[in-house]
Amino acid sequence: MENIALIESFSEFKDDKLIDRVTLMAILEDVFRSALKKKYGEDDNFDIIVNPDKGDLEIWRNRVVVADGEVEDPNQEISLAEARKIEPDFEVGEDVSEEVKLVDLGRRAILALRQNLISKIHEHDNTNIFKHFKELEGEIYTAEVHHIRHRAIILLDDEGNEIVLPKDRQIPSDFFRKGDNVKGIIESVELKGNKPTIILSRTAPVFLEKLFEQEIPEVFDGLITIQNVVRVPGEKAKVAVDTYDDRIDPVGACVGMKGSRIHSIVRELGNENIDVINFTNNDQLYITRALSPAKITSIKLDEENKTAEVMLKPEEVSKAIGRGGHNIRLAGQLTGYEIDVFREGVEEDVELKEFSDEIEDWVIKEFSRVGLDTAKSVLEQELEDLIRLTDLEEETIREVVKVLREEFEE
């Protein structure tokens, strides 16, 4: 048969893509039936025999012999005279099977067949890739940097699959060169057209959780369970751990002697500061642990509204808030409580919301975001610290400080 170009095409894909025999046969039959239907108007009277192992195929058209001059459907019927050119002993009413050569379809049809075959195999391949990576969502994956763009890094795995690491899924301190291996979590897989888009993330909390599973045997074995993970990627994270075995110290097991066990995780995350705390159903104790390293004097909980008023000595306040307000914000996310910090022994303080006539609400919310809810909590901070802690302009902060000072000078 004149099928060299076509057979070379599917043989090439069979070798490269490792498509199984049954799938190949189905794809080839589908491609040829589409071509036959286009040329003859229908394909139900054709038999297609595919032999992927030998790289060969046969097409047979089945027609019924009718008397000369009575052919109404040339695709379904053949005249007695034409039938006897194939076999001289054919009679009216008998079935005739005649092989169809690829050359009979025409050069243009053969080129279209080849292109359609390539397209179908790509489509099959993309579907398999989508299914494969869909099953890997939420799992750690490693791939190599192939191309660096402004908004994303394009990675390739060992199978040549393209994986995207967007800028907003990178840790701020991440810096990669072409050829570097990058580890992350398969965050999502979507089909855009027929092509799967695979998104990798290094900022998702589940990435840190999976790193714990990978690096700490007790977590992998299920002896220690991770109850919650919150992160400011590259800056700080809090991980609440628990165990059903009283003989195990879950925090000690995760951190290791002098931080030996958690060190590789910290390094992978760009020296992200990781606090590991014991989980508890006692909300008061949980908040106390979550605000570590600050030492709490007392806590007043409103369980219905999920708010907590925390009293600390003045020297402990900055520890509770943390750099950039990260510590108090993460403690709130970990416990599910909105935490307000108050200084022990400070009298006649005034909550910032009382100044709403003079200070805009969005400014008050920004101070509150970093744990500064009262006038004196703001006034006790240096100007440089307030600029560093908040996203406010220096001029705005100076105006706020002026308003607050006037309140206490009166």
UniProtKB/TrEMBL annotation:
Residues 233-306, 307-388 form the K Homology domain. GO terms for molecular function: DNA-binding transcription factor activity; RNA binding. One of its GO terms (biological process) is DNA-templated transcription termination. InterPro entries: KH_dom (IPR004087), KH_dom-like_a/b (IPR015946), KH_NusA_2nd (IPR058582), KH_sf_prok-type (IPR009019), NA-bd_OB-fold (IPR012340), NusA_N_sf (IPR036555), TF_NusA (IPR010213), TF_NusA_bacterial (IPR030842). Keywords: Cytoplasm, RNA-binding, Transcription, Transcription antitermination, Transcription regulation, Transcription termination. Pfam families: KH_NusA_1st (PF13184), KH_NusA_2nd (PF26594), NusA_N (PF08529). The keyword Protein transport does not apply. It comes from the Bacteria. Its main location: cytoplasm. It is found in: Cytoplasm. One of its GO terms (cellular component) is cytosol. Participates in both transcription termination and antitermination. Monomer. Binds directly to the core enzyme of the DNA-dependent RNA polymerase and to nascent RNA. Belongs to the NusA family. This is Transcription termination/antitermination protein NusA.
